[in-house]
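Notes continue from the previous slide.

Worked example: a multi-chain complex. Inputs as given:
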Amino acid sequence: MSTRATTESPIMRAVLITVALVFLGFFLLLPLLAVFSEALREGAGPFLDALHTPDALAAIRLTLLIAAISVPLNMVFGIAASWAITKFQFPGKALLITLIDLPFSVSPVVSGLIFVLLFGANGLFGAWLAEHDLKIIFAVPGIVLATVFITFPFVARELIPLMLEQGKDDEEAAISLGASGWQTFWHVTLPNIRWGLLYGVLLCNARAMGEFGAVSVVSGHIRGETNTMPLHVEILYNEYDFVGAFAVASLLALLALVTLVAKTVLEWRFGLHAGARH
Amino acid sequence: MIHLRGITKRFGDYPALHGIDLDVAPGEFIALLGPSGSGKTTLLRIIAGLEFQDSGTVLLGGDDVSRTPVADRHVGFVFQHYALFRHMTVADNVAFGLSVRRGKGRLPKAARRARAEELLRLVQLEGLGPRYPGQLSGGQRQRVALARALAIEPRLLLLDEPFGALDAKVRKDLRRWLRDLHKAMGLTSIFVTHDQEEALELADRVVVMNQGRIEQVGAPDAVYMNPETPFVSHFVGETNRLPAPGGEIHFRPHEITLAADGAEALLVDNVFRKGAVWRAEGLLEGSGQFVELDLPSSGDAPQLGQTIRFHPHRARMFNAAGDHTQGETR
C-alpha cells in the first residue's frame, strides 16, 4: 500500500536508470576512454617518448612542486579557519564563512587576473617588486599564489560541517582534564577529523594539479619554466601534437581516477559523509 | 567549599543568569534543578571555568578563581553526552588527564596504567580497559566518563545531566550507584538535572532555578513540602491550583481528605492506577478548575462520572504577586 506512494513502477525505474547510465557513459566514460586511446594510438613507444621530452618532464616537475607547496599550506589554513569558525564566537564570522566560498564562485580567470592586478608590471605592487627584482607574475610564486587561492575552500568546506557536527564537548573535556591547547589539538581534535581532512586534502590536491584558468593567466606559458601539466597539454594540442597532448592528459586523468578510487575507499571504509558536497 | 557571589551572565541580548549567590559546603551533593533555559547548565559551566561570568566572583576552597581557566581549576566535569575520545581505548580515556600532565606531577606510564585500572575497578568496569567507547553501553560510557573525571583527583565533581541520555531502568540503577559512590568518596559534587525525581532522590540540597534566578535552596524534603514560590510548588512534585481571593491555593494530589461535606466536588473524567494509588482527574464543580487527586487503592476504583467531595487538609496560599503568604492547614 504505502510502497506505491514512494516507489516508481518497474518500467519507470528501468527508464531512469538507462537514462542515467547513457548520460554517464556519453559524457564521462567515453571522453575518458578517448583520452587514453588517443594517447596510445601509435603504441606505447611514442606515448612514453612524449612524456620523456624535457618540456613534459619540466611541466610534471612544476605541477608536483606547486601541489607540494599549496596543498600543505591549504591544509594548515583550512584547519585554522574551520577551528576558528566552529570553536569560537567572534564578530565577522558569517563574513568569513562566505569568503571561504569566494574561490568557488569567482571565475578562475578572474582569480588569476586579481594577482596580475596586484603583482603585475603595472599592478599595485608592480613598481616596488621591480625595484627589488622580485618576480611573482609569470614565475613560480604567482602560480603558487593562484593555486592556493583556487584550492583554499576544499579542506575548510570538508572540515566545517564535520567539526560543527562534533561540537566542542571533546575539546572541553580535554582541557578540563588539564590538557593544553596543543595537546587537545593533537590528541583529540586531529584524530576526530582525520578522515574528513584526508578527504579534503585529496580533493585539494586533485584541483591543485589540474587547475587551468587561474594558472594560465599568471603563468606566462614559458616552456620548461612556468608550464604546468594542464598548460602543457594545451600547448601541445595547439601545435597538433595530439599524441603528446593526450599522453600528458592521460597522466592527469589517471590522477583523477586515483583520487576517485581513494575517495571511494575512504567513504566505504569509514562511512564518511552521508552528503558529500563537491 | 564553593562560594558564588552575584554571578551574572548574558548571551548577546539574552540574560542567562541574574545575580546568583550560592554556598556549598565540603562534601555536599547539590542538585541544580530547573526547566531548560533556567540557566542551570550555564551556572555549572561557570563553576567549572568552561564559561566566564560577566560579573560576580567564584571562590573554590578559599581561592578566587573568577578568571581562572578550567585547566587550572582542578574540577572534574562529566558531560551530558560523555564526550569520550572515541579513537582511544577506555583505559587511555581514563588516563588522559594523567598523560597530558607535564612537569614534576607527571606519573610514569606504568603508574598511569595502574591508576586507570584502579579507577575502572571503582566504577565497576574492571577488564574493559582495552575496549573502545563505541563498544560500550550508554551506562558504561557514563561510568567511564566519571572515572576519567576522577583520575585528576578533582577537588570538585560537576555533572551535566548525568543520566539524561540513558533509558529509565539504567538511569535508576546508575542513580543509586552514584549516590553510594558519593557517600563512599565524600567528594563535593554538583549535578544539573531537569528531572525533579532525580534531584529529590540524590541531592543533600536542591537548588531550584527558573529564568536565571534561584527560586529556592533547601533539603529535598523541605523543597517538596514547603515550596516558597508558586514556581517551585508547580515544578517540584505535582500541584493542584485553586483560585482564591487575592491569590492561589496550591495542594498536592494526596493532600486531601475525603468528606461528604467537603468544600470541593470533583467530577471524575479519567481514572488510572498510579503505582500504589488511584489517580482521579477531572474538573471541579463551580470553578471548572482541572484537578488531580490520589485515592487509596485499597478501596474501589473511582467511577467515571462520579462526584468526589473532598477538602485539602494541607495547602499553601500564594498571593497574586507570587509571594508565599502562609502555609494553611485545615
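Summary box: Chain B has two domains: 2-225, 238-329. Residues 2-225 of chain B form a domain with the Rossmann fold fold (CATH 3.40.50.300).
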